[in-house]
Amino acid sequence: DGGITQSPKYLFRKEGQNVTLSCEQNLNHDAMYWYRQDPGQGLRLIYYSQIVNDFQKGDIAEGYSVSREKKESFPLTVTSAQKNPTAFYLCASSLAGGGSNEQFFGPGTRLTVL
Amino acid sequence: RKEVEQDPGPFNVPEGATVAFNCTYSNSASQSFFWYRQDCRKEPKLLMSVYSSGNEDGRFTAQLNRASQYISLLIRDSKLSDSATYLCVVRPSGGYNKLIFGAGTRLAVHP
After folding, report:
1. Cα separation of A104 and A33, whole Å?
2. Which of A40, A50, A102 comes nearest B96 by C-beta?
3. Residues β-bridged to residue A90
4. Which of A26, A67, B22, B71 has CA atoms 20 to 30 A from the CA of A78?
């Protein structure tokens, strides 16, 4: 079955700790994206990658970092510099970064900072 | 002003009802438009794209008014399974496949 997986589903972190969220896809998509969703707000773009070994900041990249060493993987690190990290994190992928290709979402990781 | 605005609801309707959601967007150069559906604590999934001529998919009808920068979604004969949050999504022109999401309109269909 093709799709996007994210792990873990729930994550608890103490303040001051970095944490890495996993995102893997086997759809052979070039482009991948990270969003965060807060209650009452739309999804906001953190980082995106149009191709392996390349990524760009989205609208709210401060306090986050990513890597894209493999086509199928796009992990997101939430650093201690992120002031309000508690949120629902969604990874997505699409056929290509340009054009209007449907973005497919993973099931999400719910991060809570204690 | 938010780039994509929606009435948050909730819309509480009985089964069989017809319900309409509206959405406005601020960037007149926006290129593509979509409705996504998001179930509680799940990921969004594409419901349908929205075309200038209007389009229909079963009980769902989407309309776009570029002059007014307005998008709508009509659901006829509501089912219990339609209960979800509906996200209005806009793709600005140019560049990469960036999507701008509205905060969503919550629909609750009751027996």
Report:
1. 10
2. A50
3. A35
4. A26
Q: What do you get for the CA distance between the two ends of chain B, in Å?
A: 37
Which of A62, A108, A54 shows the shortest CA–CA distance to A85? A62
By Cβ distance, the residue of B8, B43, B102 closest to A90 is B43
Instruction: Report the 10 Å Cβ neighbour count for A53.
Output: 10
Contact B97 A42 (CB under 8 A): no
Q: Hey, is A90 helix, strand or coil?
A: strand
Residue B55 touches partner A, C-beta closer than 8 Å: no
- Tell me if A100 and B46 make a contact (CB, 8 A cut-off): no
Give the per-residue pLDDT at A99: 60
Please write the tens of the pLDDT for every residue from B20-63.
999 999 998 888 999 999 999 999 999 999 988 989 999 999 99
Q: Which residues, given as ranges, of chain A have pLDDT below 50?
A: none
Distance (Å, rounded) from C-alpha B21 to C-alpha B12? 12
Distance from CA of A15 to the nearest CA of B (A): 24
Alpha carbon distance B19, B60 (integer Å): 10
CB contact under 8 A, A98 and B96: yes
Give the integer Cα–Cα distance in Å for A56 and B44: 23
- Taking CB atoms and an 8 Å limit, are A100 and B45 in contact across chains? no
pLDDT in tens, B84-97: 999 999 998 876 78
